[in-house]
Amino acid sequence: MLKAIRGTKDILPAEAGMWQKIEAYGRQIFSIYAYKEIRTPVIEEAALFIRSIGDATDIVQKEMYVFSDRGGRNIALRPEATASIVRAYLENTLGQNQAVTKLFYIGPMFRSERPQKGRQRQFHQLGVEAIGSDNPLLDVEVISLAVKFLEGLGAKEFNLKINSLGCKKDKLKIIEKYRAGIKPLLGSLCDECKERYNKNVLRVFDCKNPKCGEAVRDIRLKDPLCPECSAHFESVKKGLEGLGIKYETDSKIVRGLDYYTKTVFEITQKDLGAKDAVCAGGRYNDLIKDMGGQDTPAVGFAFGTERLIMAVKEDVSQSSPAMDVFIAVAGEGLDEKAFALMDTLRGKGILCDMDYEKKSLKAQMRKAQRLNARFAIIFGEEEFKGNKVALRDMEKGSQKEIEITDIVKEIKAR
Ligand code: HAM
């Protein structure tokens, strides 16, 4: 039998209600903060991600799905959406008539990682990008939006960590300082980290090998930021405090993608473990210029939807709507009449269904119960001759005969 590809999952009807709820709430809260939806293609030129996320990152080196299409083009399944959105922003001149362009997105991403709890090869993100300003208030807006989104979904015991990587110059200095700090520890790092040390030392902090994490744990940098970046970071912290948002600063938050500058942040949640963030993001002030645009600062985040569902931990079975009416047929030749009534009810927005298998009335009523139907309408031969049906209240167990023409009114009234 054919099976779903390793690291991918079917979202079954029992879970789909929860997905809808999270996505609907995302759309609502992102809109309240004046972000507009954008949908970009799932396939892009691989070069887009290589240039933006960085050649030495795990995503590009090990995780990106890349293939040649029939025209010999080098295509990637998107591993994230920020690069795609920057591409779309530039290609469609979205910033033309507004100083700040605020966008949100919801959709699947692809990374060939080793599948485990909370880590899939096709996963989903909900994210925002605010493009066009370096104002620290925008960092505060984006971070507080992430926190409010989590709170609104009822998530508890989450932890926001922030850091600043500074401007391009600061980042280069930080990289040099880390190189100096890590050099004497090279012997205790894995072979890959030795290579990372040469190519892009920040990526040592992304290593999933606990021995490497342990080795670099105590490295601290002194005053890594220039006065301007330091003031920016202080404003972000002050802004968060002003909104009553709790955070920790952590200089080890360096993020696994190369485009970040200045503020970066991650949100972890107790049930997911400290390594796996439910949400992550930050500033990428140089990316748009590096991709051929004007000097345009930007900031954003992405939630992993699968991890969000684990963090919210609601009873998913509660999320799918129950049945308003189940229509049972107890007589020859009444199927079509019942079907026609069902069509009328559905036209009035009443959620209903029937059995298509010509089962016994008893079996049909059992199904009505199983589906958690509020009412059952029973078509019997005798009643139908008088243009009536039986309306059964499944909660109370009471039943009465009723004119077919009154049925919608009666159900709506109850
Ligand atoms: P990221 O940290 O690579 O950042 O991913 C963001 C979130 O996506 C993670 O915190 C996690 O919840 C989820 N995620 C990532 N990989 C997987 C996976 N294999 N399985 C399940 N969930 C996963 C970005 O993607 C940036 N584009 C975020 C951003 C937006 N920065 C600025 N704007």
Question: Can you tag this structure with a few keywords?
Answer:
414 residues, alpha+beta, BirA Bifunctional Protein, domain 2, Rossmann fold, 3 domains, 8-stranded mixed sheet, 5-stranded mixed sheet, 16 strands, elongated, binds histidyl-adenosine monophosphate
Could you characterize what this model shows?
β3 (66-68) and β4 form a beta hairpin. It contains 15 helices and 16 strands. The strands form three sheets. It has an eight-stranded mixed sheet. The radius of gyration is 28 Å and the shape is elongated. It has 414 residues and is of the alpha+beta class. α5 packs parallel to α9. It has three domains: 13-166 and 225-316, 2-Layer Sandwich (BirA Bifunctional Protein, domain 2); 176-217, no CATH class; 321-413, Rossmann fold (3-Layer(aba) Sandwich). The chain binds histidyl-adenosine monophosphate. Residues 80-82, 111, 113, 118-120, 123, 125, 127, 129, 256, 277-282, 300-302, 304, 306-307 line the site of histidyl-adenosine monophosphate.
